[in-house]
Amino acid sequence: ARNRLQASETALSSVDSSIVRLLELAEQGVNGTTGAAGRAMLSNEVDGIRSNLIAISNTAVEGKFLFAGTRTQTQPFSGPPAGPVLYAGDANSIQVDVSIGVPITVNLTGSQVFYGTGGQGSSTDVFQAVTDLRDGLVNNNVAQIQTAYANLKGIQDHFSEMATLIGGRQASLDQLESNLEEFTLSLKAIQGSYEDLDYPAAITEFVKLENVQQASLSTLGRMSRQSLFDYLS
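Predicted structure:
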C-alpha cells in the first residue's frame, strides 16, 4: 500500500511541475513581444512536456500500472504525438486490507486524475489542454493560448486536490503503522516476561516442591491409619 501511494504522490508532483512550466510557456505565448516564430519555438517544448505527461500517466510499480484502475497489466494511456490521448483502464478502485477490517484505497484511476470531472476532451482534460496550447502556439492563435492557460489553471487546482487525497491516505497509513508498532512493543514485553523465565531453575524448584508435597501426603496417610493403641504403645 505504501509503495503505491508514494509512487502516486511522486507522479502527481511531477505532473504539477509540468503544469507550472506549461503555464509559464503560455504566458510567454500571449506576450505581445513574442512573434509567430517565437511561439512556434515554444511549441517544441510543449510537445516534449506532453510526451512526458503521457509517460507519467503510464507509471508502473512492481510491474503494475498505477493509473489503470484494476486493469493493472494494461497500459492505460496512448495516443499520437499531437492527437487525443485514449484511456484503456477502468474506473475501479483497488483496496488493500492493511489490518483486520481496515481497508485502504491505494490507487487513483487514470480518468479521474488526467481527464478530471469533465471527462476526455473537456476543459478538465490535461492532455487536451496541452494539445490546445501547442496548437495555439503553432498557429499563432493568442485566443486559443489564453483558453488553454485558463484550463491549465483549473487543472492545476485539480491535481492539488488529488495530491491532498493521496496525502490523507498516507497519513492514515502512518497512523495505523504507529498503532501497530505500539501493539507490537506490548506483545514483545509480554513475550519477554515468558522468555526471561529461568526454566531449569523453575523445573528444579517445581520438583523440590513436588517432593515436599509427596512427603507430606505420605505422612498424612500414615497418620490417618494410626489408632489410639499405636500411640499408647
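Summary: The first helix runs from residue 2 to 30.
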